Amino acid sequence: MKSDINISVIDRSGNEHQLSGPTDMNLNLMELLKMSEFPIEGTCGGMAMCASCHVYVLSHHNLTEKSNEEMAMLDESWDTKDNSRLSCQLKLSASLDGILVELAPEQ
Ligand code: FES
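^ thats the input. predicted complex w/ FE2/S2 (inorganic) cluster below
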């Protein structure tokens, strides 16, 4: 069974990068972005309490529903769009394969 998924990331300069992420290590997208040295802080450690891991999802993927905590956090961000997600709330799984995300502006 394939355990790595492909993820495309557009950085804050508009450049696109290809990442490969393992689905068998219980990682979320914020952790993968940090490990790949994108300027994502992940200040709250993935608790949906800081929005420093905010991304825009540009592809059409069936994602898990936003929790109340995630919705509340995004509501407080000035640059939230309809396709905003907190990347720490997106667990790396087969359903994310081929996803395209863009880093939101720094908070
Ligand atoms: S790391 Fe804090 S909300 Fe995602």
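Strands lie at 4-10, 16-22, 54-57, 84-86, 99-103.
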